[in-house]
Structures are given as C-alpha cells and as structure tokens.
Amino acid sequence: xxxxxxxxxxxxxxxxxxxxxxxxxxxxxxxxxxxxxxxxxxxxxxxxxxxxxxxxxxxxxxxxxxxxxxxxxxxxxxxxxxxxxxxxxxxxxxxxxxxxxxxxxxxxxxxxxxxxxxxxxxxxxxxxxxxxxxxxxxxxxxxxxxxxxxxxxxxxxxxxxxxxxxxxxxxx
Length: 172
Description:
The structure is a single chain. The chain is mainly alpha-helical. The protein has 2 domains: about 1-85, Up-down Bundle (Four Helix Bundle (Hemerythrin (Met), subunit A)); about 125-170. Helix content is about 80%, strand content about 0%. Helix 1 packs antiparallel against helix 2 and helix 2 runs antiparallel to helix 3. The longest helix has 26 residues, at about 50-75. The chain is globular, with a radius of gyration of 20 Å.
C-alpha cells in the first residue's frame, strides 16, 4: 500500500515538474509548481515529518508560488514565456549535461549506500519518539542554527519590502 502511494505520488511529482518546465504559459507553470510542492508535502507526511510538510505548504506552495504569480502579473508577461527558439550556446548545454550527470551520480550513491554521511546525530528514532520530531527540530533550529534562521528571515523581509516599493513605484 505504501509503495503504491509512493509510486503514484512520484509519478504526479515528476509530471508536475515536467509541466513546470514545458509549459509556455507562465501561470500554468506556476500552477504545476504548486502541484509539485503539494506532492512533496505529502511525501513529508508519509515520512512522518509533519513540520516539514506544513512548512512546505506554507512557505513554498503558499508564499513562493504567490510571489511568482505576483511577479508575472507585475512584469506583465501576458502569461507567455519564450518558446525556446533562441539558439543555445554549446558550452551551456555541456555544462547542463555535466551538472545533470553529477546530480544523478550523487543521488545514485545516496540511494545505494543510504546516506551521504556516516555521521549520525543524537536524534535517533527512539529519541524522536520520546520528544517528538517537531520539538527536536525546533530545539536545534533555535539553539544551534539561530543566527542563520534570523538571517533568512531578514532576507525575506528585505524581499517583501522590495516588492512593495516596486509595486508602489509602478502604481504612481
């Protein structure tokens, strides 16, 4: 049952990802991106990572897709993007192929050996069942990684202020 759910979700996620890339309409591309983010959130729920699923929905499926649609409407692309008819340089195609091969190699290594690192943290399955996954994540996030967390919120704040300033200058 779990394998069937995984395979169906994986198929939907891959089709949505191809829809993002291949759609010529920017709004349709954003909707495919939304579908992809939602399927990734369901993957997190299946993996018993409810906090990450909620963050995936709120941050990515909510904020990022809305910001993308806001930019499309602000720029006035008319929903159309380029039709990929421009000639591509040979070195960009070669770089893309090299990066894809490198990514597939890393993913294959992780799939075969189960992990990219031999380091195991203090949060084993038993420890996570005792204190809870969300509590463990928040404990690490707000102690060890507090500065990067606050810097990320500052970057997001600057982005929101920039979007408001751009929208106001266009309206005036």
